[in-house]
Amino acid sequence: MLIISPSVLAADFSRLGEELQKVEAAGAQYIHLDVMDGVFVPNISFGIPVIEGLRKHSGAVFDVHLMITEPLRYIDAFAKAGADLITIHYESCDDPWKVVRYIKEKGLKAAVAIKPATPADVLYEHLGELDMALVMTVEPGFGGQKLISEALHKARALREYADKNGLCLDIQADGGITADNLADVIGAGVNVIVAGSSIFRAEDPSAVIAQMKAMAD
Ligand code: DX5
Ligand code: ZN
After folding, report:
1. Which among 94, 126, 172, 197 could bridge 192 via Cys, Cβ 3.0 to 4.6 Å?
2. How much is the pTM?
């Protein structure tokens, strides 16, 4: 089953609680929370207090995408704020696997993201330790960009590797996903999609979610 994780980066920040309720009522199972530190990526978004505040308004899985350097320093704080799944970037520290183990020790799900220029095989050796791999389909930092279709080859390679090795792995794609390119994304073996602009900037976000779910079925 396709899991839809709307990215609140594209939502109306003055009424985030209502925005979340709207997409959850439409069937979104996850909420994607993009945390940017202005160092790992050239943009600053929001952090721990916002997630903590939203937790009271939502029963969805909080899918926290950390675009920050040295994420180990903040895992405790994001866990306490209400994260269910934490994704760190492979490129963000020297030992991402140490951070993955720490996230799992906290009882949370762990994922590692790779930027468009990072090959998929950096994840192979420890893939069995991950709940999810995130293939970035845009350069991280900004919503509203166009999907880089070459990145989908990496999702396909990861799906093949996981299947061959009997691993139960979620594969998420993030960036530029719309109803128009969803078939290609799912066809590459992705089962968790992030969508910001195509959902929150639509006239009727619920209709877009319904359309995406119907396409996946
Ligand atoms: C980009 C973020 C994405 C972004 C997706 O760095 O990781 O989650 O919000 O937004 P859209 O769907 O608009 O590309
Ligand atoms: Zn993201």
Report:
1. 172
2. 0.98
**Per-residue pLDDT reduced to its tens digit, 195-204:** 999 999 999 9
- Tally of residues, the chain: 217
Q: Which residue has the tokens 């359309």?
A: 211
> How many domains is the chain built from?
1
Q: How far does the centroid of ligand 2 lie from the alpha carbon of residue 33, in Å?
A: 7
pLDDT at position 93: 98
Catalytic residue among 37, 63, 131, 174: 174
212 lines ligand 1 (CB under 6 A): no
Ligand 1 lined by 6 (C-beta under 6 Å): no
* Burial environment of residue 12 by CB neighbours within 10 A (0 to 12, 13 to 18, 19 or more): exposed
* Closest residue by Cα to residue 144 from 16, 47, 43, 63: 43
Please state the rounded mean pLDDT for residues 29-45: 98
The range of the structural domain enclosing residue 196 comes to 3-216
CATH number, domain at 180?
A: 3.20.20.70
